[in-house]
Design a protein that fits this description.
Layout lengths: L4 H17 L17 E6 L4 H13 L4 E6 L7 H15 L4 E6 L13 H9 L4 E5 L7 H5 L2 E3 L2 H8 L3 H36 L4 H42 L2 H44 L1 H6 L4 E4 L6 E2 L11 E5 L4 E5 L6 H7 L1
Parallel strand pairs: 1-2, 1-3, 3-4, 4-5
Antiparallel strand pairs: 6-7, 6-8, 8-9
Helix pairs in contact: 2-6, 3-4, 7-8
Length: 354
C-alpha cells in the first residue's frame, strides 16, 4: 500500500475524479472576473510571503482597489476548516467584487488544505467570483480546478486583479493620438472634398464655406471633449492613487506605534507615582516604628536588665525579683553587660539613694 506522498497523490487523484464527475470543474459554471475590481478580499496567512508579494504588486500598480485581508491558517489540521469558513462568510456578506485565495509554494503535504473537499464545496457554492494563486507554476490543487480563474502564483494573482494605472494612461494617450489622427484625416479629406466641390459648383460656394466652418467648429468641440475626458480619467487615477497611499498599512502601523509610545509614557508615569506614594507611606511607618522601638529608648541612655536562667531570661522590674549571687544581663544601646547581684535594696531605700 502506498505511503507518504504517494498515498496523498492517490487521494488527490481520487478526490479530483469524484468532484469532476459532480461538475465542480465545469467551465459553464465559472464566473467572469471583474476587469477593474474596487473591493478585493484576500484569504491567506497574515504572516506569509504570499500576502507580502501580493500587496507589493498592488502598490506598484497604484490601483485604487480596497484590499481586505481575511487571515486564516494555510496548513495544519485546522487550515481547511478555516479557509472554507472564510469563503462562506465573505460570500454571505457580499461586500467585495472578488475573492483571492493565495498561498506560497510548498510540498504536497503543505498544500493539503487546498485539496480538501470542504474547501472545494465552499468555492463551488460561492456566488462571489474566486481566483486562486497557490504555490508555484507547477503546483495544482483541487481549489485551483474549482476556482473561477487559476493564477500560478500569488504575484500573478495580484497582477491579474490590479490593472497597471501607468499602462492604462499610456494606452489612453495612444488611443487619443489615434482618434485625433483619424479625425484629422477625415476632416482634411472633407476639407479637400469641399474645396473641390466649391471650385466645381460655384453656385453653392457660400453653402460649402458655411459647412466647412461647421466642420471646423465640430473639430474644435471634439478635441475639447477628448481633452476633458482624458483629464477626468487622469484625475480619477490620481484620486485612486491618493486613496491607496492614504490607506497604506505602513501609515496605520506608524500611527499604532505612536499610540503605544503615548500609552507607555502614561504607564511609566503612573508606576512612578505609585512607587512615590508607597515610599512615602514606608518612610512614615518606619518613623513611627522607630519612635516606639525599645532600641530608641536604649539610645537615650536607658537599659534593660534580665535575670539569666537555665531555660530563658526574665526581665527584672523590681529588686525583689533577684537575690544576691544571681546572674543578670544588662542590655545597653550598644552591647550588653553580664553582672552578679551583690546586694538588693528595698524600693524606698533605692529612692533615697537616688
Amino acid at each position: 500500500e502506498p505511503a507518504g506522498a504517494g498515498k496523498m497523490q492517490l487521494e488527490f487523484e481520487k478526490t479530483k475524479a469524484k468532484l469532476a464527475a459532480l461538475g465542480y470543474f465545469d467551465e459553464e459554471r465559472k464566473q467572469n472576473i471583474p476587469q477593474f475590481p474596487e473591493k478585493i478580499a484576500v484569504i491567506t496567512s497574515p504572516t506569509g510571503a504570499a500576502i507580502a508579494d501580493f500587496l507589493k504588486i498592488i502598490r506598484l500598480r497604484k490601483t485604487g482597489a480596497h484590499i481586505q485581508l481575511y487571515p486564516v491558517s494555510v496548513q495544519g489540521d485546522s487550515a481547511a476548516r478555516e479557509i472554507a469558513a472564510a469563503i462562506k462568510e465573505l460570500d454571505t456578506l457580499q461586500r467585495h467584487d472578488v475573492v483571492a485565495l493565495i498561498r506560497g509554494g510548498g510540498s504536497l503535504e503543505d498544500l493539503q488544505a487546498f485539496n480538501d473537499e470542504r474547501v472545494a464545496e465552499a468555492i463551488f457554492s460561492a456566488r462571489l467570483p474566486i481566483i486562486t494563486g497557490i504555490g508555484h507554476q507547477i503546483d495544482f490543487t483541487i481549489a485551483d480546478f474549482c476556482a473561477d480563474y487559476r493564477c500560478p502564483t500569488p504575484t500573478a494573482a495580484a497582477e491579474y486583479l490590479a490593472s497597471d494605472s501607468a499602462a492604462l494612461l499610456r494606452q489612453l494617450h495612444i488611443l487619443r493620438t489615434r482618434l485625433i489622427g483619424r479625425m484629422r484625416q477625415q476632416l482634411d479629406s472633407a476639407a479637400r472634398h469641399l474645396h473641390y466641390q466649391r471650385r466645381s459648383l460655384g453656385v453653392i460656394t457660400k453653402k460649402l464655406m458655411a459647412t466647412e466652418q461647421t466642420l471646423k467648429l465640430h473639430q474644435t468641440r471634439i478635441n475639447a471633449a477628448i481633452a476633458n475626458k482624458i483629464n477626468r480619467v487622469e484625475n480619477q487615477l490620481h484620486h485612486q492613487q491618493y486613496r491607496l497611499e492614504r490607506n497604506s498599512p505602513q501609515q496605520r502601523i506608524a500611527q499604532s506605534k505612536q499610540k503605544l509610545l503615548v500609552l507607555d509614557q502614561k504607564l511609566r508615569q503612573k508606576i512612578q507615582q505609585y512607587i512615590a506614594i508607597k515610599e512615602e507611606k514606608l518612610m512614615q511607618t518606619t518613623a513611627l516604628l522607630q519612635s516606639v522601638s525599645p532600641l530608641a529608648t536604649l539610645a537615650r541612655g536607658y537599659s534593660v536588665t534580665r535575670k539569666k536562667a537555665s531555660d530563658k531570661a526574665h526581665i527584672i522590674s523590681s529588686a525583689n525579683d533577684v537575690s544576691p549571687g544571681d546572674q543578670v544581663e544588662i542590655l545597653l544601646h550598644r552591647g550588653r553587660l553580664e553582672c552578679e547581684v551583690k546586694k538588693t535594696l528595698p524600693a524606698e531605700t533605692s529612692r533615697e539613694a537616688t
